[in-house]
Amino acid sequence: MDGAVDADTAFLADHLEAALRAEHRPVLRAGFSGFWRPRSVRLEHGRDDPDAFYEAWWDVSGLWREVLDPLGRDADRTWVPSLHDPVTDRASRAPREAVPPSAVLLLTGPFLLRPELRWGFDAVVHLSTSPAAIRRRVAPEDVERVLGGWGRYLDEDEPLVAATAVLRCEDPRHPAELLD
Fold it and tell me: Which GO molecular function terms does the record list (predicted)?
């Protein structure tokens, strides 16, 4: 679930998780914020730098190593749902967990369709949200960083084209599928 507003991606993933569990599918949940780099690395160019937000906040190699590669295997699959606790800015020390057969991973966060990640997923739902809606739902001190990084992502990585499905998400309680 790819989107600029973490609360939106989590809200919609909660509903998708409930539907999958109703079908007796095991669900694994992770958020991209569990793969943030330490604050000293993330904020090296300041808290508000949108380019650093896009380029340096995320431990993409850790996500591949601990989540995407293990879940792509056919046998002996174990994974780690997070490496970093964004609240304490320390290692999460999340235990390695067995992956049940036919499990579905619901990963939430921004920038999931960047080139180094997009081929690691079977499907990605992209949440298309206007700058005005992002401003309403992101903390005021984060708005310029999020809008700047998100704008760069939209321009460079074209998630509207790469996504499996695109939902218009002005209000996550009332998403609308965008069709070609």
Answer: kinase activity
> CA 16, CA 170: separation in Å to the nearest integer?
18
Q: How far apart are CA 32 and CA 68, in angstroms?
A: 12
Q: 42 in a domain, yes or no?
A: yes
**What is the distance between the alpha carbons of residues 3 and 111, in angstroms, rounded to a whole number?**
7
- Does pLDDT of 165 surpass 80? yes
Nearest of 9, 7, 31 to residue 159 by alpha carbon:
9
Domain presence at residue 143: yes
Work out the pLDDT band at 179, boundaries 50, 70, 90: confident
Number of domains in the chain: 1
Per DSSP bridges, beta strands 97-98 and 104-108 are unpaired
Cβ atoms 103, 20 nearer than 8 A: no
**Alpha-carbon span 91 to 134, nearest angstrom:** 29
The count of other CB atoms within 10 Å of the CB of residue 41 is 12
**CA triplet 93, 94, 98: central angle to 5 degrees?**
140
Q: What is the CATH number of the domain that holds 118?
A: 3.40.50.300
pTM of the full structure: 0.91
Asked whether residue 1 is assigned to any structural domain, the reply reads no
Is residue 180 very low, low, confident or very high in pLDDT (cuts 50, 70, 90)? Answer: low
CA distances from 62 to 22, 42, 91, 104, 110 (A): 31, 15, 12, 19, 16
